[in-house]
């Protein structure tokens, strides 16, 4: 069993609660890893002795050669397993959050690096974690935050990942003999696929786990998958569970519309009474987030599992109405997250997103919200009949943050998202030698590649697992389908490395 067993799941959250659930997951896993390292140190081992941290100063704007401004991009390198000088390079690409030492010390890609004697490198995404200038969160400076800047080739200048590739190659005297494989999950999984697509000469193959490569403004499919997962008996769901969740939201909405605002606020432990429609929408989004987070991270030790959630919603021993069962879910969330109350102030949410202070740099809300407004959308709405939550989760309510926080017109979003799909190819990206891995319970599969397309796109589909589940190391208690999927991934990576070696031998034999 991998003692770290963490995953790299920088998800694309909907509301504040889902963001907190994601951050809680990251923090808990990091803390667990720190404790394990203390145990190793107590036993005389030095797990960090082969790990180096560094910074490379990247151009802020790869498209403008007159702009000489830079930002410090953080990275980690682990040489512990590397077979010098010709061993492969495994690149872990950071997403919408900080990277950690553990990104080159733990996870399935690290297990494979041990087997293939690879050099491990991890690079942080611009404007996240420590890879940002002190004034980088100001709206006028966020123009330099984009996936295109992370990837695009502008005339003679290479973008962040390509420049980083060149830097590592020079630092370690790498050559064409060193085969690069990239890895990423969720947004960084998309970056892994796109890096291979845009720079096939730099990276030989890419693993893209739970990667939403298609941008979409109205991502109603997210909550449709959440609804179907709630009734999936294979993961502990049921028709009754889904029906009770749906009924609970109808009752909460009815209570709000009926004017019982003080009672609703008291029942759900709100920090404020949701007196206006914006605050009521925040409450409904927070309650939905609790269930979204449960489904997205099912069986990964975050909050509860689908089985446990459905147990609360369908407990036969208590004849409570669905409303009170949803109250219990809210209580469980607040208890486990140690939050005294649910913050449902829309004004406060906007003010938090407008905070550009440097102390907030390791938080991702402002940066990621900007990217949803300018590139991806991904708004998880509930305006059709298949959604199990409240119709208050509208596209209008979510996109107006773009105007409120950044001054970006809601009307400009469709064109921005169309450009992203045109640039990358949407869910038909024509990326050769990319392996797309998805879980059947994960809502983000709807924007990924889930069917093979010859050699252009190969897929691994894990029927009953959640978001980025394959990225952790093997654990004692996990589904057999997950172990089988990891073996498939290992087979693909091994095949790529063998093929790359054969191609290099043929070129040497031909004198090329």
Morphology call: globular
Please state the oligomeric state of the protein chains shown.
single chain
Number of helices: 16
Uncertain ranges: 1-13, 153-158
Question: What helical percentage do the residues reach?
Answer: 40-55%
Mean pLDDT over the residues: 88
Main β-sheet, spatial strand arrangement: 1-2-4-3-5-6-9-10
Strand content range: 5-15%
Please count the beta strands (DSSP E, at least 2 residues each): 10
Largest sheet: 8 strands, mixed
Order of helices and strands: HEEEHEHHEHEEHHHHHHHHEHHEEH
Structural class of the secondary structure composition? alpha/beta
Radius of gyration: 23 Å
N- to C-terminal distance? 44 Å
How is this fold's topology laid out?
Layout: H1 16-42, E1 51-59, E2 70-78, E3 89-93, H2 108-116, E4 119-123, H3 147-151, H4 160-171, E5 180-185, H5 187-198, E6 205-209, E7 216-218, H6 221-230, H7 239-257, H8 261-267, H9 277-296, H10 306-313, H11 322-337, H12 346-353, H13 365-376, E8 377-379, H14 395-406, H15 413-424, E9 434-439, E10 457-462, H16 480-509
Parallel strand pairs: 3-4, 3-5, 5-6, 6-9, 7-8, 9-10
Antiparallel strand pairs: 1-2, 2-4
Helix pairs in contact: 1-9, 6-9, 7-11, 13-15
Overview of this protein structure:
It is globular, with a radius of gyration of 23 Å. With 512 residues, it is of the alpha/beta class. Helix 2 links the parallel strand 3 and strand 4. Strands 1-2-4-3-5-6-9-10 form an eight-stranded mixed sheet, sandwiched between helices. The two termini are 44 Å apart. The chain is built from 16 helices and ten strands.
């Amino acid at each position: 069993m991998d003692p770290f067993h963490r995953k790299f799941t920088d998800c694309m959250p909907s509301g504040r609660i889902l963001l907190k659930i994601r951050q809680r997951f990251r923090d808990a896993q990091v803390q667990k890893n720190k404790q394990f390292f203390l145990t190793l140190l107590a036993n005389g081992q030095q797990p960090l002795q082969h790990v180096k941290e560094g910074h490379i100063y990247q151009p802020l704007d790869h498209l403008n050669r007159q702009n000489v401004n830079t930002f410090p991009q953080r990275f980690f390198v682990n040489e512990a397993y590397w077979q010098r000088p010709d061993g492969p390079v495994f690149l872990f690409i950071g997403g919408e959050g900080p990277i950690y030492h553990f990104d080159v010390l733990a996870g399935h890609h690290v297990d494979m690096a041990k087997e293939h004697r690879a050099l491990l490198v991890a690079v942080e995404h611009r404007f996240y974690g420590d890879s940002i200038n002190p004034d980088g969160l100001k709206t006028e400076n966020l123009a330099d935050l984009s996936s295109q800047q992370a990837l695009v080739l502008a005339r003679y200048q290479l973008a962040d990942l390509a420049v980083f590739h060149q830097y590592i190659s020079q630092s370690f005297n790498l050559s064409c003999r060193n085969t690069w494989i990239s890895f990423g999950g969720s947004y960084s999984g998309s970056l892994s696929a796109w890096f291979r697509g845009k720079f096939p000469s730099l990276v030989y193959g890419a693993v893209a786990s739970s990667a939403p490569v298609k941008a979409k403004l109205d991502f109603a499919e997210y909550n449709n998958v959440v609804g179907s997962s709630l009734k999936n008996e294979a993961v502990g769901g049921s028709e009754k569970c889904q029906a009770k969740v749906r009924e609970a939201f109808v009752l909460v909405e009815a209570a709000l519309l009926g004017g019982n605002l003080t009672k609703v606020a008291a029942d759900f432990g709100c920090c404020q009474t949701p007196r206006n429609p914006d605050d009521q929408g925040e409450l409904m989004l927070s309650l939905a987030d609790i269930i979204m987070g449960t489904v997205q991270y099912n069986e990964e030790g975050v909050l509860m599992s689908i089985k446990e959630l459905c147990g609360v919603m369908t407990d036969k021993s208590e004849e409570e109405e669905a409303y009170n069962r949803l109250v219990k879910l809210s209580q469980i969330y607040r208890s486990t997250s140690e939050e005294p109350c649910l913050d449902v102030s829309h004004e406060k949410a906007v003010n938090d997103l407008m905070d550009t202070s440097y102390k907030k740099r390791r938080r991702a809300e402002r940066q990621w919200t900007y990217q949803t407004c300018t590139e991806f959308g991904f708004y998880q709405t509930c305006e059709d009949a298949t959604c199990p939550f409240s119709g208050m989760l509208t596209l209008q309510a979510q996109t107006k943050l773009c105007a409120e926080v950044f001054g970006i017109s809601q009307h400009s979003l469709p064109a921005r998202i169309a450009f992203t799909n045109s640039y990358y190819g949407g869910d038909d990206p024509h990326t050769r030698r990319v392996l797309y891995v998805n879980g059947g319970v994960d809502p983000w599969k709807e924007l990924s590649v889930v069917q093979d397309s010859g050699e252009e796109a190969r897929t691994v589909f894990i029927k009953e697992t959640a978001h980025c589940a394959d990225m952790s190391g093997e654990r004692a208690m996990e589904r057999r389908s997950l172990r089988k999927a990891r073996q498939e991934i290992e087979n693909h990576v091994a095949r790529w490395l063998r093929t790359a070696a054969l191609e290099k031998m043929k070129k040497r034999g031909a004198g090329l």
